[in-house]
Structure formats: structure tokens, C-alpha cells
Amino acid sequence: MLEVKNLSAWYGAAQALFDVSLHLGQGELLLLQGLNGAGKSTLLQSLIGLGPRVQGEVVLQHQPIAHLPAHARARLGLGFVPEDRRLFAELTVLENLLVAARPPASTAAASMAQVAGEKQQLDQVFALFPALKPMQKRRALEMSGGEQQMLSIARTLMTSPTVLLLDEPCEGIAPVLVESIVQALLQLKKQGMSLLVAEQNALLAAHADRVITLVAGQLGQHRTP
Ligand code: ATP
């Protein structure tokens, strides 16, 4: 699904990633670990096209994407859940979700298909995160950190990704909600989605197919949990 070959990244003259190569198969959950500053966020941002200056190959479903802008990569099925969630604080849960759905097409028939598609996508994200359903009219700023994280993941799912990258989705979240998030990610994996997750949480590590570790911008040991 996702193949990365010899990816290096620089902030100005400072190199943050050194020849990182990795493979993510369909339905695979790959966990990315590393100390603060090891380069985890830089790697995820480089893959989605929002990183610093990079060199190397990124191939999504056999298609080279390293030269494409972020919105084109997203359209090809690459989803990203950022560490800081980037929700629209003043908008409701439902509005945050609908804002991420594909823009309305111009013809009436296409618009109707769009509405039907959105309804189906909403049903899917509410099946995955049942806690969000009764909160549809709540503004994002009125939610707890864990609820916001669920909304952030749900919003990215509204873009129908096939490969999902998540930056520390369990960080600073109440254990009961961490459990919900981990279960949702495992459900997505079961549905065939490929997941690359930067995360230190032990619960997620226990369910990962493989764990890779970044050390000062270089991939260290690989292990199967
Ligand atoms: P954390 O767990 O703290 O988020 P991380 O593993 O995600 O850490 P990065 O944030 O990718 O690590 O940082 C990797 C290196 O790149 C660090 O040395 C960091 O100081 C540097 N870096 C990150 N962002 C920038 C930036 N915008 N400008 C310059 N250097 C940066």
C-alpha cells in the first residue's frame, strides 16, 4: 500500500531524517516509536506532503507521490490525523465532519449522490465512534481531549482514506477513551485499512503487527510484538 525508499528530510541545513525506508501492507498496523525529537512527526508530515524539504521515494498503491502536493496525496487515499487535531473549535461535531467530506459537485444528480455518500460515511464513523453520535450538535471546543481526538480521527475518515497516518492519537487522553480509540483503529485494520501510527501507548503496541523505532532520524531495530 505504502512504500517509502531512502527518505531524507531537512529543516534548512539541519537534517532530520536519514534514508528512511519502510513498507506498509494492506490491513497492516505499523507502530512508529522514538524519543521526543527523533523525527516521528517529520516522517509523517513528509509522507503527506506537509513536511520540510525532502528527498526520496514515496509510493502509494504503486503510484509515486513524492512530487505531489498534499491535497493530491489526500485525494489518492492518504489520510492524516495530526497531533494537535486541528478541529474547527466553533463548529459542531456534525459540521466538523461534513466540512471534511468531498465538496458538492455541480449537477443536481451528483449533489444527490454526494448527500447519499455523506450519509453513508456519517453512519460509518458513528458506528466506529458511537460516543460521537449523541454529540452531533456540540461544538468541538466543548468536548474533552479524548472526544476531540475521536472527532479528529472521524473527520479524517470522512475523506475515505485507504492509508491512515496518525500522530500520537492516544497522547494525554483518559484511559477509557484510549481504549475506544484503540478498538476503533483495530476495527479499521480489520476492514483492510493500512495504519501507520506514531505512538508510545503500550495498549496499541500490543496490537501492532510490527514496531519500528526512529533514533535521531534513522530507523533502528524492527520487531514484531
Ligand atoms: P515529538 O515526539 O516531540 O513530537 P518527534 O519524534 O515527532 O518528536 P520531530 O518533531 O519530527 O520529532 O522533530 C525531529 C527533529 O526536527 C528535531 O530535532 C526537531 O527539533 C526538528 N524540527 C522539528 N520541527 C522543526 C521545524 N519546524 N523547524 C526546525 N526544526 C524542526
From TrEMBL:
It holds the Pfam family ABC_tran. GO terms for biological process: L-amino acid transport. Residues 2-225 form the ABC transporter domain. Keywords: Amino-acid transport, ATP-binding, Nucleotide-binding, Transport. GO terms for molecular function: ATP binding; ATP hydrolysis activity; branched-chain amino acid transmembrane transporter activity. InterPro entries: ABC_transporter-like_ATP-bd (IPR003439), ABC_transporter-like_CS (IPR017871), BCAA_Transport_ATP-bd_LivF (IPR052156), P-loop_NTPase (IPR027417). Gene3D superfamilies: P-loop containing nucleotide triphosphate hydrolases (3.40.50.300). Belongs to the ABC transporter superfamily. This is ABC transporter ATP-binding protein. It comes from Rhodoferax lacus.
